[in-house]
Hints:
This protein is an all-beta fold. Helix content is about 0%, strand content about 45%.
Amino acid sequence: MAVLAAASGGALGAPAAAVEDTPPGQVEFPAHCLPPQEAGLPPADGPATARITVDDPAPRVGDTVTVTYRVARSPAVNPLSVPLPADVLTPAGTVVLGGAQSGEVTVVGAKRNEPVPAGAALPDVTMTGTFTVTSPGAITLAPGPYTLHTGHLLDLDTVCAVTGAPVSERLTATALPTANLRRVLPGSGYGAPGARVTVTGAGFAPGAAVTVTGRAGAAETADRVAVTADAHGEVTALLPVTDRATTAVVAYEGPAWSAQRGTGPAAYTVVEPAVTPPGTQRLTATVEPGALAMTQTGDAVTLGAVPYGDGGAAPGRIGTVTVKDARGGPAGWSLVGRVGDFAGPGGTRIPGGSLSWTPSCTAAPGSPSPCAPGSPGPVGPDGAVLASTADAPLTGGTFTIDATVALRVPAYTPPGAYTAVLTLTLS
């Protein structure tokens, strides 16, 4: 899949220190401002006052957060010996991330100011920028260095370094939901009472204790065996099926089956031997269960272009997926997608959670199972459900699955092609 993206990096700020009787999040810290060499002025040292705010204090991994950095007071002064007119001051700076995610957020402001007399302090400035959440947990934001550019008569930069700036804002990021890819498959779909069935499974935690058991509806039967998953999360078990009530096989980690740590049911039928009276013949016809399989149209997706400097959503659509479920049992299925980081020129990267989709799913006429599309939202490396069918007494059918996708591209992402791999897993 060919797509566009961007990223950011940085360091951790110092512990928080609130200033009494000030707006929430406003902090004070020492600043060292170097006037431009052309001004012939000495460095200006003194306290700076700033406040950082975010548009979303509780994002999910993969979300883009907008950061606003307002410097209300600074020791920097007008570097010219003449008054500065209105709207000639352009600020730029960084916000320092810490806690669950380290890095720096680049922020810039509009060219907007009131007139400034010669030698007077430069006015307050407001800068904004964005960053993509890459880690769950508490993330802190602290003021970083900033530059005040004046564009009257001469283009001059006053550069202000920050010392020990306290945390001004905090947010708590939550992880994307993790898809359950555990699955199980009996070596045969039917057998006489007492048959020993080879059952294979995959998607378990490496080294986990796994229970393989028979099932009748939602209840477990007496057929049961314990195995240990190998280093790849796979299991092989020999399950004696003696309980005539068994209609399916499941496997799970932990003390009991759950939707988060267990597989869906795989169909199994106990075939009772029959006694035929003299002079009669018993006729048996068997419908062999088939497979669960998928096909996809194409192997590449090209998303729409996004203008440099503007950013926005790069739209597209995945190749159509067709799922055929010919197993003929009670087990539904789930189709899950995962996408890794997007890589571009010069090592620029952005998390896969910046790619979102809106799935759709249609069952062919006559299919026993209805098809449920996954929820719209981020995909990410942990995965998201594209489509699924539920467990039922009899499942199966043919299903057509599509999804529109969109990649959030930050403003001023370096031009070029950005690529990532979207992996679909059917279980």
